[in-house]
Amino acid sequence: MQTGVVKFFNESKGYGFIVDDESKKEIFVHITGLNGVTIRENDQVQYEVVDGKKGLNAVKVQKL
Question: How many domains does the chain have?
Fold first, then answer.
């Protein structure tokens, strides 16, 4: 699993971005990719990356 920091997450719209610790790239995260957790800006998270319709998506997101 990869790790990163939540850069932005809009709960009402259900999406945001995670900055990957290793590559420093922004990865899209949708509320459906969260493992029953609530994430906020600056949270440390671990996740898996899958190819989505418009690029990489974070799934199985968990707080560290």
Answer: 1
Q: Domain residues for 52?
A: 2-63
Residue with tokens 């969260």: 34
CATH classification at residue 58:
2.40.50.140
- Give the span between the Cα atoms of 36 and 46, in whole angstroms: 14
**Residues 3-62: tens digit of each pLDDT:** 999 999 999 999 999 999 999 999 999 999 998 899 999 999 999 999 998 899 999 999
What's this model's pTM, rounded to 2 decimal places?
0.93
